[in-house]
Amino acid sequence: MKRKKTLIILCASLLVICGAIVAVNAVEKHVDSINTIDETVISVDEDKLTSVSWTNEEGEVTFVKEEDEWKYSGDEDFPVSQILFSAFLDNFEDVRASFIIEDVEDYEQYGLADPEHTITFHTEEGDTVITTGTYSTMDEKRYICVDGGTVYLVETDIAENLESVRDDFLDNDKIPYFYQVKNIKITTDETLDIIYDDEGEYIYSTNYDYYLVSGDEYKPVSTTNMNSLINNITNETYTDYVTYKASEDDLSDYGFDDPDLTIYIQGDKYSEYTTEQLSDEDEISEAEFTIYFAHKDDETVYLHVDGSKIIYNFDAELYAELSSMTYDDLRPSAVVSVEEDKLEKITAVVDGEEYTLDVKTDDNSGVVFSMGEKEVDGATVLDDIEALSITEFNSEESGDVVEFSFTLTLNTETELNIAIYRLDDENCLAIFNDEILGYVSRSQVVTLKEDFTKMLLSLNKTEEEE
Predict the structure, then answer these.
(1) Side-chain-facing half-sphere of 133: CA atoms under 13 Å
(2) Which of 97, 214, 270, 355 has the fewest CB atoms in 10 Å of its CB?
């Protein structure tokens, strides 16, 4: 009896073991078919598409094509950048795979049971559905699934593009890339009207390219300051919008019926938006651009481009800088700037005595300086004069003690009189043709005076030796 019972137990155990073996064999029987490939697995032709939709963490995004133009299905008023959306579709024009995985039953191991993204390309011939999974642990390439069947390991991670949302395709207003800005008008309560003329002779010097126009008067503008102003305006990218379908009433409500600041730009632009130099002059055309600003409070500024339906938020600090701009923010810091070939003489007063330094430009010798019949080294003095710069513009200060004064006589029968008054140990006041410019570092003036004196001493020494 005992032997029989033992036999029964052994038989039962054998059945359990056999069942387990069968179960294991049943589980291991299916093996995914994995092979290496090098071929295109997604090839989207934009011309054949009728709509495109995809999902990500933000939700679903759908664009439809109507009369060869892409529109956002949720709001046809949304201005879609056709260039940006075509660039988005270019990412799916030729997607290549390095591995193909067929006969898949367990999509979870590839992260495709609950995909991160799904994109559907609709055509008249049918739909193509792509889902994205996780990365391969070996080579960090993305698993994707096409039409719910075959899994691929792709070379390019298309999931990065599927993070895009509607606003990524907003057709923002763009400032033309100006080849040369010829006119800028900045209007608040008053207008700063700045023109470009690299050959103009509006003032004593043609060293300047930009001028502030005030009636019949032209004032020089620093090229550096002007380029900084242009960059502040034209390099701005408008993306932070308040609305993209503003009506006339909306514009009025936001304050654009009476803008606080208006900037007008006119000049030559490239016909294509590019920062590269183009050799064909036919690529350059004239353009103009006007932007308006409405200032609500210290933190809220709105911007509107002429002819657009979009209203943007604008940086309050940059607005404050633009709206408070005066000529002093744009004028050159140099006390005086002349071309050497126009300079005939420099007359300076040192310790009550007047000295004249003659200047001539020779094609072979360059600039030659002389006093009487003696040549002297006046280059340092001229460099010191050109180095004089205004540290702070000021029209109210006055001075009593002259530190140094000199007159530049040009071959255009023009005289430029510069008087520099000592204010304290650190500052002097520069006056140009009876117009107060502002503060000059006294150290610059002392250097000029010392170098002029050294030149005189060297001349006297030479005369004594002779």
Answers:
(1) 23
(2) 214
